[in-house]
Amino acid sequence: ATFTTQSGSVTINTSFDLGMYTKIGRMVHVHGYFKVSSVSAPSGYWLINGLPFANNNSDIEGETYSVFPVIINGLSGDLEGIGIGQNERNTTYFEVKDQSSNTASNQIADHVVADTAIYISGTYSTD
């Protein structure tokens, strides 16, 4: 997996940068553990790239969007409700609710620090 931010950068420890997947028919289950080794003034959105198959791009209501449970330890700030979404353009992003402003946002990169740990697990459909 690779991670990108709107600006700045987040570097993942090469000892913790691989996930696993199982594909059965059109369903793909992914899981992984990733750990940040360093950051350089990250801000804005935080995207994860490298899923093994593209998300299904059908016209069925809601099927083109997937949501994965995620645990992220070691972020700065007062955050809750962190999740991963994947839209029809196969962009996978982290979303978070900031408790201080009580608003949901994909502007999570500002809170990533060295040693932040990311645990993901999810299932999505593919063509």
Explain what you see.
The protein has no helices and eight strands. By secondary structure, the protein is mainly beta. A five-stranded antiparallel barrel has the order 3-6-5-4-8. The radius of gyration is 14 Å and the shape is globular. The two termini are 21 Å apart. The mean pLDDT is 79.
- What are the low-pLDDT stretches, counting only 5+ consecutive residues below 50? none
Structural class: mainly beta
Q: Can you summarize the main beta sheet?
A: 5 strands, antiparallel, barrel
Number of strands: 8
What key phrases describe this protein's structure?
127 residues; mainly beta; five-stranded antiparallel barrel; 59% strand; globular
Q: Can you give me a brief rundown of this structure?
A:
With 127 residues, the chain is an all-beta fold. The chain is built from no helices and 8 strands.
Protein topology:
Blueprint: E1 2-12, E2 19-24, E3 27-49, E4 66-73, E5 79-86, E6 92-98, E7 103-105, E8 117-125
